[in-house]
Amino acid sequence: MPRPRRTQISVEDTPFYHCCSRVVRRAFLCGDDRYSGKNYDHRRGWVESLLFELEAVFAIDVAAFAVMSNHLHVVLRIDLDTANRWSDAEVLEQWHKLFKGDELTRKFAQGGLVESHEVIHLKHSIATYRSRLCDISWFMRCLNEPIARQANQEDNCSGRFWEGRFKSQALLDEAAVLTCMAYVDLNPIRAKMAATPEQSNHTSIQLRIQAALKGEQPPNLLPFIGNERDNQPNGIAFSLQDYLELIDDTGRIIRDDKRGAIGENSAKLLTRLNIEQESWLKLTTEFGKLFHGPVGTLQELSSYCKHLEKRRRHFSACCQHLNAG
């Protein structure tokens, strides 16, 4: 039986979550549909554009994404600090970018006078919106529903476009986060949709490579900030160059027509993650099969289950794959 989303999210344990949405029937999110003979690549642009539009509204960062032919992967980071720092006016400003709100919230946002008997209702609305703006379920809802409506309109049909629920799994430590990001970034290469990461259209890795060539990082992706340090900004505590090299090395190994090997810098990064090279390829090619729930060490899984008041450590056998080396 599907578990309520609130029993899968524990910001106390991790702000990082891997989400995956799949289409139903013979629908194609993008690419060539051999049944209809149509090409739906333009829909990948819909998804990427809306993804970054939502990233600018929600207190949620996008760490990685890949738009495939019949499914979508995103690695998200909940930015609870930003959501809590927003003033009441800022919360309404963000919310009204997507939704109308109600008459009272619109009046307050426009500087109108709020009567004393309206304050409680206004405060409740603001608290609700603040919570939703750092809620992964609301983020994915705002991403999936408009795409479904556009696709159904284009296909001249009605009904479900996506499966009823998106898959969500907690990434409990830095090894889980980086492994999952690599899995997502290498999706097009595994599916033979692209030969190299830089040719992987509508993916986070392509945007990171394009920006890196200019000595920059994409403004709408969670940045790599180097080694962990005091008072560090929000980001991924690894070197961007090391990550790009690791993805390139791994992509060369995955491709059948090219030889490849883990380079020295990539090997050092895997050592820091406590992952042996022999395990890395299996993890990045079979992540979706190996992990069906939260990903991390058994100790972190125990803490996660405790905070969510779970009596049993479900998926403990799956988590052993990350430390199989």
What is the structure about, briefly put?
By secondary structure, the chain is α+β, with helices and mostly antiparallel strands.
Structure annotation, total helices: 14
DSSP E strands, number = 4
Oligomer: single chain
Mean pLDDT: 87
Beta strand %:
5-15%
Q: Give the strand order, joined by hyphens, for the main sheet.
A: 2-3-1-4
Rg, Å, rounded? 21 Å
Instruction: Provide the succession of SSEs.
Output: EHEEHHHHHEHHHHHHHH
| Sheet/helix structural class | alpha+beta
- Characterize the main sheet: 4 strands, antiparallel
How far apart lie the N and C ends?
Answer: 33 Å
Helix proportion range: 40-55%
**Which of globular, elongated, flat, extended, rod-shaped describes the shape?**
globular
Would you identify the regions where 5 or more consecutive residues have pLDDT less than 50?
Answer: none
Protein architecture, described:
The protein has helices at 42-55, 80-85, 88-95, 103-109, 119-132, 136-155, 174-185, 187-190, 204-212, 240-254, 264-272, 277-290, 298-307, 316-319, and strands spanning 16-22, 60-67, 71-78, 167-170. By secondary structure, it is α+β, with helices and mostly antiparallel strands. The longest helix is centred in the middle third of the chain and has 20 residues, at 136-155. Helix 7 packs across helix 12.
